[in-house]
Amino acid sequence: MDFFVVPTVTFRLLYVLIVITHERRKVVHFNITETPAAAWTAQQVINAIPYGTAPEYLLRDRDSIYGSVFVQRVEGMGHKKEDDLPRSPWQSPYVERLIGSIRRECLDQVIVFNERQLHQILEQFLAYYHEVRPHRSLAHDSPIPRPVVLSDRGKVIEIPLVGGLHPHYLRQAA
Q1: What domains, with CATH codes, occur in the chain?
Q2: Residue 80 — φ and ψ, nearest 5°?
Q3: Predicted TM-score (pTM) of this structure
Q4: C-alpha span between 1 and 100 (Å, rounded)
Q5: Could you give the 3-state DSSP secondary structure of residue 125?
Q6: Maximum separation of any 2 CA atoms in the chain, in Å
Q7: How confident is the model at residue 38 (pLDDT cuts 50, 70, 90)?
């Protein structure tokens, strides 16, 4: 899990929390706030991980957002917390790579006005990320596996996704 910051057109800063699973690089939860706090972050972990399905480890950095309330909540859920070394983003490569992808492939191309709009943009991008976008580490599949479509199944059509930022090509049934 990790946070990243998105500035709005009015120079407000919005903090986005991302929680992912490692095996398929799937985002299990994200949320946005203007004022991140340990209690808010702890509640987001509760929302992200259903009761009884908690992974053994929860990787995070040493940000001050993860205060004592957060640590108590995570330990109460049975997680073994693993903190990165200071200033060592390479120790959580999956979430750092995802944040970079969100920035490069989406947020660098749009102007964010407010929290509601950012939430809609991220929902659209994450749907694209989960269902369409190929991942090299997943053998060019997406986090939600896609069926293989044979080349003789009809004409290729383009479907614009994420407000037209990313095209998706499908074969139209004949």
Answers
A1: 2-146 (3.30.420.10)
A2: -95, 115
A3: 0.82
A4: 14
A5: helix
A6: 60
A7: confident
Structure tokens at 70: 């957060």
d(CA 83, CA 96): 15
d(CA 91, CA 57): 14
Is the pLDDT at 21 greater than 70, yes or no? yes
C-alpha–C-alpha distance, residues 143 and 135, integer Å: 8
CB 9 within 8 A of CB 113: yes
Q: What angle do CA 138, 119, 55 make, to 5 degrees?
A: 45
Q: Give the SS3 label for residue 152.
A: coil
Q: What's the Cα-to-Cα distance from 70 to each of 31, 46, 47, 149, rounded to whole Å?
A: 16, 10, 13, 45
Local structure of residue 173 (DSSP, 8 states): P
Answer for the pair 3, 99: CB distance below 8 angstroms, yes or no: no
Q: What is the pLDDT of residues 63-109, one digit of tens each?
A: 777 777 877 777 777 666 556 566 666 667 788 889 999 999 999 99
66/104 Cα distance (integer angstroms) = 26
Cα angle for residues 81, 83, 33 (degrees, 5° grid): 85
